[in-house]
Amino acid sequence: MLLQVGGNELLMVVDKNGQSCAHSAAVGGNAEALRMLYKVAGKELLMMVTPNGESCAHSAAVGGHVEALHALQELLGVELLRMVMKDGTSCAHLAAGGGHLEALRVLYEVAGKELLMMTVHDGQSCAHVAAVGGHV
């Protein structure tokens, strides 16, 4: 319905934080909406990042949304899951900070140990972030 009225232009609108509707679908863990958005608007929409570098994969990881992470990997490959924010934060950091073990497992399986070993600019790994939250 909205697509018929506003077209792709509507789907490309970002909010005041630079988040697209793909970010919103990922925050909610809505894998089916991500698939539909990809089908309609393509890679460009799902690869959009906020000014601080947050991708829709980061948005899915922070909530531990395994199905959304799988959908993003199926649609775009591991490239999106390996992206880091401007401060070096990876999807693994965000999943670890929330104690989302299953999401970390998925990230490891599809993106490899290298993703888990990434550090932010101050040198903290996802293990550091997990420990702060008591999720070791």
In short:
This protein is mainly α.
What do these coordinates show?
The chain is mainly alpha-helical. The chain has eleven helices and no strands. The relative contact order is 0.13.
Distance between the termini: 45 Å
Contiguous helical run count: 11
Measured as a percent range, the helix fraction is: 55-70%
What does the radius of gyration come to? 15 Å
Structural class: mainly alpha
Round the mean pLDDT to the nearest integer and report it: 94
Low-confidence stretches: none
What portion of residues belong to β-strands?
under 5%
- Which series of helices and strands comes N to C? HHHHHHHHHHH
Number-wise, the strands total 0
Core attributes:
single chain, 136 residues, mainly alpha, 62% helix, 0% strand, elongated
Helix and strand topology:
Elements: H1 2-11, H2 21-27, H3 31-41, H4 43-46, H5 56-62, H6 66-76, H7 78-81, H8 91-97, H9 101-111, H10 113-117, H11 126-132
Helix pairs in contact: 2-3, 2-5, 3-6, 5-6, 5-8, 6-9, 8-9, 8-11
